[in-house]
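Inputs:
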Amino acid sequence: MGRLFAIEIIYRGIFQKTLATRISRAIVIAAHHEGKMGISFGRYGDSPERNGIPAKNFAIVATDEQTLEEGMAKYEPKEVDVTLCVDDTLCKGVESWAWYGLQPVNKLLKPGGTLIVTSREGPEAIIAMAHRKETPYQLSILKGTVSFSGLWVYKDDHTDVRLLGAIAKVLPDLFSLQSVQKAIIDEWKDELKATSAAKSYERTSSITVQPNQGNPEVPYKFDLPKWHEMGEGIAIPSIPAGHKMDDPTSHAQGGFQPDRNPTFKKFSTRTMRPVVNFDTCIKCTLCWLQCPDSCFDVTPEGLYDANMQACCGCGVCEAVCPVKECVTMVNETEFKDNSSQWEDWRKDKDGYKVWLQEKIKSHPERSHGFRYRGQYEEQIPEMLEIASEK
Amino acid sequence: MAVATVIEEQKHNIEETALITGSEAIAVACKLADVDVITAYPIRPYDTVMQYVCKLVANGEMDCEYIVAEGEHSQFEIVKHASACGARVFCGSSGVGWMYAMEALTVTPALRIPMIAMVGNRALDDPGAFGVEHNDALAVRDLGWQLVWVDNVQEALDTALIAYRVAEDRRIFLPCAISCDGAFLTHSQAMVKIPSQEKVNEFLPPYDRGDLLLHPDNPITVAPQGNEDWVMEIRRQNYAAMERAYGVIKEAYADFERIFGRSYGNPFFEEYMTDDADIVLLGMGTLSISVKVAIRQMRKEGKRVGFVRMRWFRPFAAEELAKSLQRFAAIGVIDRDYSFGSPYLGGVLAGEVRHALYPGPGKKPPVVDFICGLGGREVTVPDVQKMAESVYKAADGKAQPLTQWIGLRE
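Outputs:
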């Protein structure tokens, strides 16, 4: 029996779809240069992709046809040699259409396998986000801003080839840097990209993450019902309307909190989240009115609290808020939990103010596509600087 | 009509390899076959074909009339008419899109239109699943459509070329649908050999509608209304064409092997490790991969299990299949479809296999039916082992439920 290799690419739907496809294709082509065979595919259950929804692509490679068939006999691999996570906020977990509950980012990694994350963060921040795993694994960080594009554009910032170079380093049995460079020339006919892959290969290093390191939280999950337990006629009960909110300090009741989907929490669909300055809020209702996901709870005193079980991180609330820095979008990497900001504010208003000032320093840097001609060119110097960081 | 100028320039005799999906392979076959008219209407997973055809046209690699229709019904009507006028045509759909075209699908074989369609097999609505089930393509099984299932990217490309050759044969003039399992084949990229244009030209003659050509120089009326005094004779003609298809398919595969040097053995069904098998499993499409892997594992434990993968469902090679299946002690049919209320509540394929065995003179091994993989659910290696166990029991004379649901939460 030959050897089977599996690599998954965890990406954000639509914004990184082309990136993920390019990487998994190039993996198969590079392996082909070494006489290995393979297939490249996306997790079909992730379709239809929606903006920002976590999704996966896979490359399965084998040294012979029968071994490849063993790999293809599964809908998706049960374990992988390398996980590429092309947006560091996905290290909090993957909650996609194809998965019920929250899947830890490192779930499929074989013992000793490598998680490669594109990020500006250091290993501490990445390890803190990723759930604990029973077996040790390797972590490698590819320094860079997150490569996001819209549906019709591709941000050719070399994230694809830099990741390919990193794979050659952490999994040399799969393919050499030379094969990666051949595949790059085959696919994109670009010498500069081949050089980028080599630079990334040289710089790539990894550290070991032990079972006692990482987010200790047990990811939420639920069991699917048996056929005879389900209602007939493809009819499902609606989510109850909602209820009044309780003030954690005065125990006054009032306002309105809609009930939310108990099985789809959206914790991992965000790359950023709003933080609210309740002291400056003028209760104009615009955030509550315009939120496409009805994520704002109405508090007993008529304030609006963004509920993280419903927020997709789109930023509409920030855009419509008429008060300066009353609603501010902040990088999702800055948060450890999904608790209520309003409750924290009620319990300790001064402490909340300090917390808020600290958070709003971290403005989101993720841009879904380009808003004006020349924006990409403006970003290049900074991207280059980050990519050269050790 | 489209002229193959671009393709002429690219004429060469070198086989290239490419990393493409099953859908893209069908699109490449359309390019190689120099299809004249292609109509499209998006529905997953078929839409991956139209996207790739579109790309080939935009890149100047393919020259055809590419029409995006306002729905599947007109999509199939347009190519039907184009084919009547002598154009080589391609079309396709999936799931309920295919069903929406149903009226056009019934008249296409009735008018002896050699349309080639790709069905990206998809569960019928509701609940709107994107995954594979075979009920969409099977809905036309009684109407005169030739139906073929493929299980890998290379076979998708090759079969599309063979389908044109067979369908456009003057002895046949019946449409052919190539079924590709959604996701497993339509969305999975594998390395394939792309045949050279010269060899394809040698294999596939131009479409000649002959005396049936709808053209001012050949004044004819197509599809005048007819009643009970005409219909049976018309049906009998289509019956004869489908009867002839069996031989024409054999011819086409033999020629394919001669020209391209790639052999598919028996065109109608593939046999895997059947020579010494006690029992066999039988199924269609990409579930073959899990079945083959499971069989290799079971053989290590001394269980001699074989597999028969049906390619052509219409025409159904009943006599040939019966003769083969009579060698085994019991048969397990894997249905990625359903036929509610059918005999023994089994799936479509099991019914056909039992039917194929019944009239023959030889022995009639017990047939156990397994319904699984619906809506794109994975058919796992342990699922296959479970099926084989039940078939072994049936072979030992132990009564087994005739229809079993496998991989169901129960």
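Remarks. The CA atoms of residues 142 and 314 of chain B lie 9 Å apart. Confidence is low (pLDDT under 50) at residues 1-11 of chain B.
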